[in-house]
Amino acid sequence: MTDKIRFIAWLVATSFLLTNCTQKKALELPVLTHVLSHNDYEQPNPLFDALDARINCVEVDIAYINETLYVTHAIDEIKEDNTFESLYLKPLRDIIKKNGGFVYKKGVPFTLYINTKTGGKTVEKINDFLQKNSDIIASFTKEGKTDKPIFVICGGPNSIVNTQRFIVAEGHLETPKSFTSSEFYMVNLRWTTYFSWTGEGTFPLEEKGQLLKLVKDTHEQGRILRFWDNPDINTTYGENFWNTILDLGVDIINTDAPKAIKDFFDEKSSKTPKPKILAHPQLVNGHWSFFIETKGEEGDTHYTTDGTSPTVNSPKYIGPVLFSKDIQIKAKTFWKKNGSLLGSKETSKKIKTPVLIPSVKADVHKGALRYYYKEDTSNQLPDLNSLTSKKTDIVNDISDTDFKEDAMYALRYKGYINIPEDGMYTFTSKSTEAINFVLLHDILELENKGHQEKKRTVPLAKGLHPIQVDFYVGLEASFNLQIEGPTLQKQIISSNLLCH
């Protein structure tokens, strides 16, 4: 899709919103000033996907090659047509012209966050290029900035320049305080360097206190605080993470999912959000049942199971619904306002009838076997089947708690999990600076490559199920495997479930 076609499509959609009967509602939807479209140029429609989601800050990586500013993540990935001007400046100029002098609205300058991928004169050339577009790009002095529709933050080598500046720098809290906020504006930190929390449950008090201090220190310097490498909105606990972090005063958070972010904030703005069909059914009195999570302050949720759109005459959701074959569920919430019937957005999900994985019979003892391997892997994962373990013992849980200070080793856990009753069980693998693989019946596979949380949900029959977990560590790391099910709150797989 060419830039011209993208722009026309965006303009037509925007014009429709602003001229039809929902004009007031469209205008009330917030511009997402706390969101940065990470590596925006890698989206299917660079810039325009962010604009469609009302995101107000996009990240652009730039390399200066052969007198041209290219948009690219790496020099060997440069595409001739992907210039800074063609992908960003020209379409933004066209939008500003059509939209009365701004991208979204007056008083909300659109932010371009530039990362430089080449050194030398790159920042100088970016500044020169922006100066040629000074009618739409804000400039900076020690006293402040000019009022223009686009605001540019630039990170990378030599980003603070002393000439007439059309960029403002980003850095760390340790950047000298002699720089004013019109020279150095954004504190840019990696989330996983400071915090381990991924949004699950409550933010740990110690980490919460550390974040509040970072927010306070940054704001006292007159700067904004941005995090990257953070849990995205579409991760398991993404919504809880974003709600919590924004409430604590963080100014900008990364996303690689513009549409999901738009839906999230639209739901927050709605008094009656769309209902949520839970992904996994559960056994209720021996029958598979699906669940719908209803949200909001008012209205009734109605559903269908034949693929048709629900109406107020469709079945009303009041609790778990039994089913016995694969179905297409659709749900919608309806309510009355000023005598008119209104409806939320429709939600839809296909659900298959689970088939329980049968248990096995075995004579077993408490605990799991753990094998310890210490090998020079030459940066390659060893084949544990071909190695002899240095140590074998029996443990009560699947974690590495007694190897905290070790490095360059591998562990294999082998045994059975004793499942207490038929149902759906979720396995969660969590680790830092490590790689682990989980096999259950040679069916369930979880591969976790560090600083991640991976999940898999499977239907298991009551009884014994064989499990094997391989854990590889290069440097100091931690890891554990958790389980959650019908009568099990989320917990590390431990002695009450493990046997060999």
From TrEMBL:
Record-linked InterPro entries: Fn3_assoc_repeat, PA14/GLEYA, PA14_dom, PLC-like_Pdiesterase_TIM-brl
SMART domains (UniProt xref): PA14 (SM00758)
Pfam families in the cross-refs: Fn3_assoc, PA14
Record SUPFAM superfamilies: Anthrax protective antigen, PLC-like phosphodiesterases
Residue span, PA14 domain: 363-497
Record's protein name: Chitobiase/beta-hexosaminidase C-terminal domain-containing protein
Species this chain originates from: Flavivirga spongiicola
